[in-house]
Amino acid sequence: MKEVYLNYSTLNQKAIGLIHLDKAKAYLREAQFVSGSRLPKLEVCIRFLEYGGECSIVSHLVRASLAIEGKAGTNFLL
After folding, report:
1. Residue partners of 25: CB distance under 8 A and separation at least 6
2. Which of 3, 4, 32, 46 measures 20 to 30 Å from 11, CA to CA?
3. Sheet containing 55-58: order of strands
4. Model pLDDT, residue 38
5. What is the DSSP letter of 3?
6. What is the pTM of this model?
7. What Cα–Cα distance (Å) separates residue 5 from each residue in 34, 41, 53, 71, 72?
8. DSSP calls for 5-74
9. 20 phi, psi to nearest 5 deg
10. Burial of 73 by CB count in 10 Å (0-12 exposed, 13-18 middle, 19+ buried)?
11. Angle between the 39-50 and 21-29 helix axes, to the nearest 10 degrees?
C-alpha cells in the first residue's frame, strides 16, 4: 500500500488514511516526514489544498479506485 505513515520505520509506525490540511501542516512542522520518502507528496497535497483543491490523495495507481472511495491510500481534505 502507498499510504502516508507517522513514525515511519519505527515500532509505532501508523498509516494515515484520512488527514485534514491543518493536521498535515502540523506534521510537516514536526518533521514527521523525511525527504526522499513521502515528504514531497505531502508538500504537493498541502499546496494543492491551499490553492483551492478540495481533496488530494496519495496512493498506488493500481489502488486508485479504492483510494477515491477512501478505502486505500491517504486522503487529504480541507
Report:
1. 46
2. 46
3. 18-20, 74-77, 55-58
4. 80
5. -
6. 0.86
7. 11, 12, 22, 15, 13
8. EESTTSTT-EEESEEEHHHHHHHHHTT-S-TTTTHHHHHHHHHHHHTT-SEEEE--GGGHHHHHTTSSSE
9. -95, 155
10. buried
11. 140
Count CB neighbours of 75 within 10 A: 23
> What is the residue-level pLDDT of the chain in tens, covering all 78 positions?
578 888 888 899 999 999 999 999 999 999 888 777 788 989 999 999 999 999 999 999 999 999 999 899 999 999
CA distance 77 to 73: 13
Single-letter amino acid, residue 56: S
Cell numbers representing residue 64 in the block: 486508485
CA–CA gap between residue 73 and residue 41 (Å, rounded): 12
